[in-house]
Specification:
Strand 7 and strand 8 form a beta hairpin. Strands 1, 2, 3, 4, 5, 6, 7 and 8 form an 8-stranded antiparallel sheet that branches. By secondary structure, this protein is an alpha+beta fold. The longest helix has 20 residues. Helix 1 runs antiparallel to helix 2 and helix 3 runs antiparallel to helix 4. The chain is built from 6 helices and 8 strands. The radius of gyration is 20 Å and the shape is globular.
């Protein structure tokens, strides 16, 4: 099994866009050297540099990802804190090859439902016609504590983006249970976020990202 690789660079607050680009390029050169024995390709580098240098004020690159199992040179940018009113302009500035008004309408609708959106943009020799929107409610709030999750999933079922059986299974998955090993262990199961994926000419899709944490059962004491 070959995993995807994502990395983030912790920058000082005063680091400008040029410094951010140089740090990212250095890490990319090192990773490409380890994986492929070459430097990060110059043509992809130019597209990526523009995507970083044109970021609006306040926005930042949370992570950069290599989608290695997909056998593609595409680099994924995970952009956080992108102001809603600057999103369509940013897509236009980086050469996103689709109707930015459609992207803006989708983002605007989702912003009224979710507390935070993190954008996924695919970078190759040009910007690809793909837009992922990671959707978060609160600080990892869960369905049993935040009724908005139920309303969100009801809407996804109504829109044909989620099967009723999967809705029920996901809601049942979330929660806590304790098992007895050498000492009590608590399994905490929950939803991290959803991701809405838009690609022109392809039906929209929503992915769920969920997981389990294991903790000693001292939180009951």
């Amino acid at each position: 099994i070959i995993p995807n690789i994502f990395f983030g660079i912790r920058e000082k607050k005063e680091t400008g866009r040029t410094g951010q680009w140089k740090s990212t390029r250095q890490v990319l050169d090192e990773i490409y050297g380890i994986l492929f024995g070459i430097r990060f390709p110059r043509d992809i580098s130019a597209t990526l540099r523009n995507a970083i240098m044109t970021l609006p004020e306040g926005a930042s690159i949370f992570q950069v990802g290599f989608m290695i199992p997909r056998k593609t040179e595409v680099i994924r940018l995970v952009v956080t804190s992108l102001p809603r009113d600057a999103m369509t302009r940013y897509l236009s500035d980086i050469g996103w090859p689709d109707d930015t008004n459609v992207a803006g309408e989708l983002s605007g609708r989702l912003t009224t439902i979710f507390d935070r959106i993190v954008y996924n943009i695919n970078i190759g020799r040009s910007v690809l016609p793909f837009l992922g929107m990671e959707l978060y409610l609160g600080k990892l709030s869960q369905p049993q504590h935040d009724p908005r999750w139920t309303r969100v999933m009801d809407q996804l079922v109504s829109d044909g983006l989620l099967l009723e059986t999967k809705r029920e299974a996901l809601l049942r998955f979330c929660g806590k249970r304790t098992i007895q090993l050498l000492y009590p262990i608590r399994y905490i199961c929950g939803i991290n976020h959803l991701k809405f994926v838009y690609r022109k000419g392809i039906p929209n899709e929503v992915k769920g990202y969920f997981g389990t944490m294991i903790r000693p059962d001292i939180i009951n004491q």
